[in-house]
Amino acid sequence: MSQTKVAHLPRWAAILQVIASIFGLIQIALIAKIIGVVVLERQYKVVFMVLIFFISGLMRFAIDALGCRVAFKFAYSFVSQKRQEMLERWRNISPLDINCPSSGKVASVFSEQSEMVVSYLSRFQPIALKACILPIIIFFLVLYYSWIAAFILLITAPLIPLFMILIGWHAKEASQKHLSEVGELNAMLIDRLKGLLTIRSLDAVEITAQKLRDHSENLCRRTMEVLKIAFLSSAVLELFSSLSVAMIAVYVGFSLLGQINFGAWGRQITLYEGLFILLLAPAFFEPLRELSSVWHERAAGEVALKQLETLGNRALRMVPVDHKMISCKGPPSVHLQDICFRYNKIDRLLFNKFNLSVFPGEHIALFGPSGCGKSTILSLIAGFVIPEEGHIRVGNIAINGYTILSARSRMAWVDQNPYFFSGSIKSNLRLALLEANDQQISNALKDVFLDIAPDTLIGEGGMGLSGGEALRLALARTLLKPNVDIFLIDEPTAHLDSETASFITKSLLSVTKNHTLIVSTHDIKLASLMDRVIPIEDIKNSLI
């Protein structure tokens, strides 16, 4: 695989499965010997050989089971580690990243596709080792008794890997397209379910249903392409192995009848030797047959592993959290010094040497038109994005991996579209303080002038709430968060009528009294109520 480091099983786990297969060869030799002794020598006292046969079978089963168990445990442990690494990456992905893969695709990679990696690692590598070793052992065993039979195996065996490689290239491409289609369908389905109300209101149900049908039919085609390749690889193997076994059977049969007197190193093949060669011929192709059956699993597993390792690698990052947390105490002040930031490296700098100081208890408005960077400043303070250059201090403590959790614990964040889960008002408010009692919840609702019962049920995403009610409920939630002294509020009055905006402004000033408030807005009325107005568009590149 390119650009993806493939894990390797512990070598002895694969070797155990090879040893188990060698016990299978011993069983084949014993079967041929037992039949030869009984038929030709009329000796029925073969109990000792039968006993060895069953002991070999038990040993084969036990060793193979141990090897498979070790391989599966390693594969599952490896995938669990990769899942954990993926979670760590996603834990630090900024909520401002517009190019972030959809939750449906992430869920597909994390759950369904990662299971393909377990199958690939636990099965393919041991089978590949068996396919490299066992045919060579069998070839020399056959060669010892007949060079003709060995020659037949020799001319057919190399053709199989050649065709497998050619088919494998196509299989990997088909698997990549198939898994990509699975992720896209999952993403589309989840997104459409989230926006079901909007789809119905726009009378777009038929259009959406048709798109889902198109995607599902496309997925069916991709699936059939993968299955076609899997059957094709099996058919190629069966063709060559059947021809080889048939030719060896014809040679052995005529040799036992005395019609062919060459190819056995100048002597006649015995019944035991003929049976042994005949039983070894299918066993020669058995590891290759197993390899063929897992060949498409390898292709799918490699693609899934690459997705698991790389999904979200290029996403916009938040300040990473270090487990050694340092307390971010001090006055509720905020300082941005010489900040340089842009969302993509190919874009021009959104901020170049930007400076801002907010003093304890001060209310300031970041004022300017949409797109000038007001929300970005709030995100920089909260650590949701990382500046290319410059320093951010909260309470005179620099924001970094050691201090970010402590800094966020004293901040309250309310964005333009606060999210609420399906359930009661009470359960959504308790996200800020799990042990909040009914009196605390009622007081928080009263403080934001929201006349709504705590047991009122709302839908996913705040369905059932108006825009103004959702914002006031978000403010009530911040009131329940303990130890908050810095409020970061993003466009609280955007897209609201004047009466609702007045309620929101009143609630906001009530909630943030005696606390530090930084609000982004282009509402002149709200900005006029602040202690200071920062015109972002005019002074982006100036020292404040």
Automatic annotation (TrEMBL):
InterPro entries: AAA+_ATPase, ABC1_TM_dom, ABC1_TM_sf, ABC_transporter-like_ATP-bd, ABC_transptr_CydD, P-loop_NTPase, Type_1_exporter. Keywords: ATP-binding, Membrane, Nucleotide-binding, Transmembrane, Transmembrane helix. Its main location: membrane. Residues 12-300 form the ABC transmembrane type-1 domain. It is a multi-pass membrane protein. Residues 334-544 form the ABC transporter domain. One of its GO terms (molecular function) is ATP binding. SUPFAM superfamilies: ABC transporter transmembrane region, P-loop containing nucleoside triphosphate hydrolases. The chain crosses the membrane at residues 12-40, 46-63, 127-145, 151-169, 229-257. PROSITE patterns: ABC_TM1F (PS50929), ABC_TRANSPORTER_2 (PS50893). GO terms for cellular component: plasma membrane. GO terms for biological process: cysteine transport. It comes from the Bacteria. It is found in: Cell membrane. CDD domains: ABC_6TM_AarD_CydD, ABCC_MRP_Like. Gene3D superfamilies: ABC transporter type 1, transmembrane domain, P-loop containing nucleotide triphosphate hydrolases. It holds the Pfam family ABC_tran. This is Transport ATP-binding protein CydD. The lineage of its organism: Bacteria, Pseudomonadati, Pseudomonadota, Alphaproteobacteria, Hyphomicrobiales.
